[in-house]
Amino acid sequence: MSDTGPAGSALPAGRSRLPERPPLSQPRSTVSRSSQQPALGLLGLLLVVPIAVLLAVGAGGNGSARVLGPVVTFSLPLVVMVAFWWEDWPGTRLRSSWAGWADTVLIVAGAIVLTAVGQTLAGRLDPVALFDASPGPGHVPTFPATMPLAGLAFVLMLEITLVGEGWPLRRLPPLVGGPIALGISWAIAIAGYLTVVRVESPAGSDVIARDGPVPGAVLGAVLVLIGAWQVLCYVVWSGWPFVTVVSRAVRLTIAHVTVIGGGIVSYLILRELLELTPSRIAALSGCFIAAGLLSGMLFEGWLSNRAAALVVTLALTAVLAVALQATAGAMQLTHSAADEWVGHATLNALAVSTILHVAIGRRWPFQLISVDSPGARPR
């Protein structure tokens, strides 16, 4: 943030105002691109890859997907709030070497609390099952029962923040607007979870079965596809084609319809025409999201041509899909478990580690020109 105190660290977000649009929604002509790429992105991989590996296999194959997966997914709306609403406050109060880590610790703590809330809605608070991939009968495992809720909250937060450009909440002080956006996302997600989602109770568990019209796996696949459209338009293509529309009302309407409709239509094509299972659709879409964040965020500004950026993203998607499926095979996971793990390894490991490094950690400890990255602050 531009306001600084005597020690040079940013003032609390409540004392300033955010720009009219989030940086990723700015037209390309107003956003400086890094002259340090691709070296800066390659250096970033030195942090991104180890963190991603730790998240992907830190608790084993199924264990990582079933224990770390829900917690990381519940953390994502908080990541969006800290990165794009608070512009890394309160980490900005600290030295640059500590800022990203401090924010990450706060996000992790908040994610555990939100996961516990999701578990309570799924059945009851069960601390043992929060951190146990196979808690046994009489418990409330968070995977997969809470995943539709977590996914809904995250996609809605991105829809408000990026697709909706934060309007009209960005007129408020960041410390107010961010939590309101988070609260709206959660309120809609809870309402959808309780009324729309069909939840099956694993045998012997205390998960509450729900008879909603949409199976949780189907909703999850559609949400990941909507996320893929969000990444394509707002990370890989920096808001194109919507930034070319001058009228805000028209621009936001077209953007919401395109992104949400694109996710639904994509699901129907992949499911009905290609006959892919929802878990396979989610896994492949997760590969695309991770690839899009790598090319559009980690290597931001390197590929200014939209067609080239899309080709590179699709190529990375194919590489990730093949490599991670092979890794899942080496771990001797079943087909469904393999898809679950690939989805976790991309969405909750590689994608999240990329966001944390670029949008929260501001690429520390590697040299960065402050205007090069979305929302970057002076060093």
UniProtKB/TrEMBL annotation:
The keyword Hydrolase does not apply. Keywords: Membrane, Transmembrane, Transmembrane helix. The chain crosses the membrane at residues 39-61, 67-86, 98-122, 142-163, 175-196, 216-237, 249-269, 281-300, 307-329, 341-360. Residues 1-33 are annotated as: Disordered. This is Uncharacterized protein. It comes from Kribbella rubisoli.
